[in-house]
């Protein structure tokens, strides 16, 4: 049984995720879990503070209403959880205890000071739960829910980047989606001095060093052997900007990528590329960060250039 969890916060915006989760659950004959987390001072006693009591009452009423609404389309497990912990922590535990295969949620797309102060529930959940998470960003929230038919898959030459393929492929098979493997090339080594700056000799000539794309071609061949239609795309520039631009150019309906999912101070100082893409993309983004996977190149560069 494929299990999909949708975290809800009581807002209409968060409910957009239900449409996407329902479409996937229907195609996969899966099970929906709609979860609302309410933070309380003490779970062992009844709320005494008026504001806390109102929050608990509203959450339970909200969940009851959602249960009635979803029953007409697809039966779902609908639950309100009271906890002294933060929402990402509670959701991560729930995902593990109920063997959740996919989380579907709306991302708020905060940036700058707001992201620093409020944090990213989506980012924290991806890190804590180690469960693939489909995030509908601010520019994709009004898009009609659909099964993906063309998926952009940004890959560098690391093991971490390739981990996205395992959770992605079952979703790609639902509609026979075309996979577009994509790489943003690093600044070239053979820079030529010109007036006002430096330019590369190889992007225009097409002579991309083999070590930069060899593993990408290998991945494409492996996927084709599994019956997937695969295309390879290359670009230069800012990673997040290039990913969003190429997604538009190839008419992708989904972007799928792994993320380092930094937390705490690291998350404040270094915004992951996945977060930037979620904030800019006009389509949902499937993200994944498996526990224990390092950002390590698949092969040593010295061996590649030998």
Share in helix:
25-40%
Which CATH top level class fits?
A: Alpha Beta
The low-confidence runs, each spanning 5 or more residues with pLDDT under 50, are 110-119, 191-205, 262-270, 293-306
Shape: elongated
How are helices and strands ordered from N to C?
Answer: EHEHEHEHHEEHHEEEHHEHEHHEH
Structural class: alpha/beta
Please state the oligomeric state of the protein chains shown.
single chain
Strand tally: 12
How many structural domains in the coordinates? 1
Can you walk through the features of this model?
This protein is of the alpha/beta class. The protein has a single domain, classed as 3-Layer(aba) Sandwich (Rossmann fold), CATH 3.40.50. 40% of the residues lie in helices and 23% in strands. It has 13 helices and 12 strands. It has helices spanning 16-28, 50-71, 87-97, 112-118, 121-129, 159-162, 165-173, 202-205, 214-225, 239-249, 264-269, 273-280, 301-305, and strands at residues 3-8, 31-39, 76-83, 102-106, 133-136, 150-154, 178-185, 191-194, 197-200, 230-236, 254-258, 285-288. It has a 10-stranded mixed sheet with strand order 3-2-1-4-5-12-11-6-7-10, sandwiched between helices. A two-stranded antiparallel ribbon has the order 8-9. Helix 3 runs parallel beside helix 5 and helix 10 (239-249) packs across helix 12 (273-280).
């Amino acid at each position: 049984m494929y299990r999909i969890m949708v975290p809800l916060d009581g807002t209409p915006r968060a409910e957009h995720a239900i449409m996407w989760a329902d479409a996937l659950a229907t195609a996969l004959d899966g099970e929906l879990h709609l979860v609302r987390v309410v933070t309380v001072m003490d779970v062992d006693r009844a709320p005494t503070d008026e504001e806390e009591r109102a929050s608990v009452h509203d959450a339970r009423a909200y969940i009851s209403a959602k249960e009635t609404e979803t029953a007409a389309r697809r039966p779902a497990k609908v639950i309100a959880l009271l906890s002294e912990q933060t929402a990402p922590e509670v959701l991560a535990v729930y995902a593990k205890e109920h063997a959740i295969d996919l989380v579907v949620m709306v991302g708020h797309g905060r940036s700058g000071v707001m992201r620093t102060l409020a944090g990213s529930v989506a980012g924290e959940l991806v890190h804590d739960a180690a469960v693939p998470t489909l995030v509908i960003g601010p520019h994709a929230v009004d898009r009609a829910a659909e099964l993906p038919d063309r998926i952009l898959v940004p890959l560098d030459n690391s093991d971490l980047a390739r981990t996205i393929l395992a959770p992605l492929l079952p979703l790609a098979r639902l509609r026979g989606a075309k996979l577009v493997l994509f790489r943003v090339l690093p600044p070239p080594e053979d820079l030529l001095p010109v007036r006002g700056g430096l330019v590369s000799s190889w992007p225009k000539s097409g002579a991309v060093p083999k070590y930069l794309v060899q593993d990408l071609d290998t991945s494409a061949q492996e996927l084709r052997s599994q019956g997937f239609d695969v295309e390879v795309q290359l670009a230069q520039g800012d990673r997040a900007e290039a990913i969003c631009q190429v997604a538009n150019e190839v008419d992708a309906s989904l972007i799928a990528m792994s993320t380092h999912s930094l937390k705490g101070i690291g998350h404040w100082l270094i915004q992951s590329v996945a977060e930037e893409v979620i904030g800019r993309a006009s389509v949902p983004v499937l993200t994944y960060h498996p526990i224990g996977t390092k950002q390590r190149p698949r092969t040593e560069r010295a061996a590649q250039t030998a």
